[in-house]
Every structure is written in structure tokens, then in C-alpha cells.
Amino acid sequence: MPTTTMSTVLEAERLFKDNQDGQAENVLMGIISQTADTKDEAILREKELALVRLGQYYRDLKNPEGLAAAIRGCRSFIVAIAKAKTAKLVKTLIDFYSQAPLNQHPSSSQTQIVITRENVEWARTEKRVFLRQNLEIKLCSLLFEYQQTKEALALIANLLKELKKLDDKMILTEVHLLESRIRHALSDPPKAKAALISARTAANSIYCPPLLQSQLDMQSGVLHAEEKDYKTAYSYFFEALEGLSTQDDPRASLALKCMLMCKVMLNLPEDVSSIQSSKLARKYAGPGTEAMQAIAKAHENRSLADFEDALKVYKAVSLRSTNTRLNLLFARLSIWDGKIEELSDDPIVRNHLAALYDTLLEQNLIRIIEPYSRIELSYVAEQVKLPLRDVEAKLSQMILDKTFAGILDQGEGCLEIFEEIQNEKMYDYSLDTFKQIGCVVESLYAKAQKLGRSIFDEETWLKAMPF
């Protein structure tokens, strides 16, 4: 019997190669639906292979409903296989919705959520706790991906109550990590950090797989970057890159891009080229790293124009940022109808674009006004290609922040720059010397007072006299 089943699967593959997809589909569906001894491991294995191949066919055909029907129809034989295998098989089929080309179908995401909900309810009815928990985690991830965060957090809260009773550290780590990501997306850093700490605490008590450890490091880097601690964030992103590269995970390119971003934010754009020349970085070089290299070059040249050019060049997916300053910038660049992927569509890098823009704007203004002691504001605005009012506001802020010394003469429409008076080091050394001498004198005076009282005490003096 196993031999017959194997030859049928091979027949389906031959039909696919001969472009007889309809017949191959019928053959695979026949394998899945046929009744056989449920205790025969070989037959069950062939049914699994047929189901996965049928799922791949619907994925390549961009048929979300067909894949949903295949998942629903496989429940009759799924009951017969091991519970651990069941969870892996169902998750594999559901993941086809997120893979190309099926993910390009307009109803793919909604169908994926619906079929995941159905399987959660089915697992609950069948009392398959492990499968239900894994599917609920998958559902939380999907809800988060499609920005249904409120429902995702409610589901996570129920999961955590259950998992803490079962004391399943592995799944607990995954759920806390997912909660941290959702909290971060909702701009709630304290709760995001608390969830990450809980995830690391749970992970420390078990063997943490390299991929999960890399995800923890990645999230740690993201949260430290949000706190402007880019040096620590760089270390975490580096650890994540190494871990993901050992697993050949494509997310390693994102970790590399975040590393380069940290170097730019640390005012070390010259390090970007040296990092990209390393063997590990070359492996994951791509549009993302090229985008950050363009940003680093603009930062090094203190050129706002180069920064804007980078935004124009690296565009692929239309997106509206939640940052008001970036909205204004992109609107001014007239690229909302264009596409911005490598910079704006990256949820991690996107949050730091405003800070990058402010930094480059300041450096560009300083570069322009450096040679002058008095300069017209209209000329500065013309050079940076910004409205005069925005330039005046930014220069005022820089003066108040003591970025440079100067005043705005709005009557004349000019900026006057003063030379910064640098204190001589000898003056500071002299003050410090006099301070130390004062301390010594006070100490000697206190000792002299004590010594004087003991010597010139009247009774002691009378006893010391010879008469």
C-alpha cells in the first residue's frame, strides 16, 4: 500500500511538470481524502506531503479560497497524526498565505486571519491545547501585522494567564516577545520594555533556540534605539545579525541595516563603509544597506539635498508616516504618490528618520553659515530650499540650544554669528590651584587652633612653671 501511495504522489509531480495542473490537483486531493489505515506511518506521511504540495500549488496559483478549503478538508486525517506534527503542519499551511505570490492577492490577509480563527476553534473543540496555543500565537502575530492591535493584546492577556499556570517557558517567551513588539508599535516604551524583560527572564531558564535568541536581541536593539542609546543598540543588532546569519534567516539584512543606522545616529558615518566591506555584511548587502550608505554619505557631507535624494531614490511602497515632520518633508518632496520602502516602509528605521532629518538640517545650516560673521536669512533659506519662516525657527532653536553663538536681526533679515570665546586652560588651572591652597590653609588653621588650645591652656601653663 505505501508503494502505491508513493507512486501516486510522483504521478502528481509528473503532471505538474507536464503543465497538467488540474489533473495533478485531483490526484493530490484523492490522496488526502482516501481512507486508509490511520496507524500506518508511511501512509500518513504521504498524506502530509500531498497536503503540503497541494498548499504550494494554491499558493503559486494565488488561490486563497482553495488553500482554505484544503486546510479545512485535512482535519479528518490530522486527528490521526501526532499532536506535535499537527501544529507544525497547520502552521506551514497557514504560512503559505504570507508567501509570494499568494500574499499579493487582495483577500489573502483576511482569508488567512479567518482560517486561523477557524482552526483555533477547531483545536479548542478537539481539546488540542498545544495546537490551540500555537495557533493563537500565530493569530496574535497576524492581528499585529494587520494593525488589529487591540484584539491582539486581549488575546495575549488570556494566553499569558494560561501559560503561567502551565509554566511553558518556551511559548511564554514567544508571547512576551510578541507583546513587547505590539507595545512598541503602540508607542508604549515602558510596557514594551517590561514585556521584553519578562521574555528574557523566561528564556534564561530554558535552552533558547538561536532564532528566538536573535529575535530577543533584535527587539532589545530596537528599544535601546528608541531610548537614543545607539551604542548599546548597535551591540544587540550585531548579536542579532550573527544569530540570524547562522540560521540563514533573511531578517539578517534588517539587523545589518539597523547596525548601519546606529552608526549614522552616533555621528560615525565613516564607519558604515568599513562595516559593509566585512564578509558577513557583504552576504546580506542589498537595497536596504545601500539606502543607509546613501544616508551616511549625506550625513558625512552634511548635505540635506543628498538626504532628500536618498529618500527619492529608495522608494518602492507607498506609505504615510505617522510623524508630522516626515509627512511635511515627503509632501514637500512630492513623493507621497511615489514609493518609499527601504527608509519609510521599515518600521524601525522610519522612527529615526525625523531625528536624522533634524541632524542633517542642523549640520547643513552650520556648513552654510560657518564662513560668515553676518549672513542674510533669505540666502540661507535659498541654499537649504526651505521656507524662510522654517529657517528662522530652526536657527532660533539652535541659538537657544547653544549650537552656535549668534543673534537673529529680523529687522535687517540677517543672522549675526559671534566667535565663541574659549576659556584658557591656564585660567582654569590657576583657579583650581588657588582652591586647593585654600583647602590646605583652612586645614592648617584648624590644626593650629587645636594645638594652641592645648599649649596655652592656663592650668597646664602654671604646672609647667618652675616656681
TrEMBL record:
Residues 232-422 form the PCI domain. InterPro entries: 26S_Proteasome/COP9_Components (IPR050871), PCI_dom (IPR000717), Rpn6_C_helix (IPR040780), Rpn6_N (IPR040773), WH_DNA-bd_sf (IPR036390). SUPFAM superfamilies: Winged helix' DNA-binding domain. It comes from the Eukaryota. One of its GO terms (cellular component) is proteasome complex. Keywords: Proteasome. Belongs to the proteasome subunit S9 family. This is PCI domain-containing protein. It comes from Puccinia striiformis.
